[in-house]
Amino acid sequence: MIDSNRYKMSQERLDDLKKELEYCETVREKEVSELIKEARSFGDLSENSEYDEAKTEQGKLYSKIAELKDLIENAEIVDKPAEVKSGAVILGSRVKIHDVEEASDEDFEIVGSQEANPMQGRISDDSPLGRGLIGHSEGETVTVETQAGGLKFKIISVQND
Q1: Residue 92 CB neighbours (<10 A)
Q2: SS3 at position 117
Q3: pLDDT by residue (tens digit) across 10-35?
Q4: Beta bridge partners of 88
């Protein structure tokens, strides 16, 4: 049997997914059901755009519910290890790096792929930068392999609260 994908995430993210699933299965499903019921009352379904839109919305909702269930069933809660080398980058670390070539600094948090949001400074441990930094420590210069080639970063600070 093929081992299914596991999704690394914090307990907080798992709790949010469970709340979203509950909302979709209760409140949102009733709303969509009412839309379909209302659209049916307009008569001939073959030329009823409201009905088509409501059924499309129902399909999207069921896809979302299936996706949420998959994420929840395959969630892997990642706790910070009890013993971490001082200043080492791990999942959950807040990291400040210096881009050697661009001469710029950047702050971000290393998170599981389901929590990644680069616009909010949260990068995945599966991204090239995340993978390249995991296990390295403050003061080290790391070359991260990307599609654009090797990029050098100096790790300025690491917080593992």
Answers
A1: 20
A2: strand
A3: 788 889 999 999 999 999 999 999 98
A4: 137
104: which strand partners? 99
The token pair that represents 125 in the structure block: 């441990």
Structure tokens at 83: 């013993």
Contact 159, 107 (CB under 8 A): no
Q: How far apart are CA 100 and CA 123, in angstroms?
A: 19
Predicted TM-score of the model (pTM): 0.65
Q: What single letter denotes the amino acid at residue 6? A: R
Helices (H), the chain: 11-23, 29-40, 49-73, 128-133
Q: Which of 76, 68, 72, 70 is closest to 23 using CA atoms?
A: 68
Q: Which residues contact 65 (CB under 8 A, 6 or more apart)?
A: 21, 24, 25
* Tokens found for residue 66: 């299936």
Q: Are 99 and 153 in contact (CB under 8 A)?
A: yes
Residue 100 Cα distances to 28, 57, 70, 105, 158, angstroms: 49, 48, 40, 9, 17
